[in-house]
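Dear Dr. H.,

I hope your travels went smoothly. While you were away I took the liberty of generating a structure for the chain from your last submission, since the lab meeting agenda had it listed for discussion. I wanted you to have the full record in hand beforehand rather than looking at slides cold. The sequence, exactly as received, is reproduced here:
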Amino acid sequence: MVFIFIDKDGAAGKGHTKSLPGLNVEFAPDSAWDKVIILSPQPASRVAAEVKAKAADLARRHRDPEAHGGLRQVRQRQGEARRSRRR
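The corresponding predicted structure, in token form, is as follows:
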């Protein structure tokens, strides 16, 4: 798994200083994160269930890219690009 922590505003004191449970990482207040991207070989439903079980306070903010068409759109564009290269 890969975790990418993003500090959107760079403002000290805003965001999360503790990482996700089990990572044993803590961020300095001036580097507090606002968003996290989780890349996993597990299905999105499994990742969502793990977030909900282990980080319930963050789970309400969870966004499943499959539910919003994100990954589906990327795969569709990749397929279109492959088809156009074959022509």
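Two observations you may find useful: The chain has a mean pLDDT of 80. The chain has one domain: 2-86.

With kind regards,
E. W.
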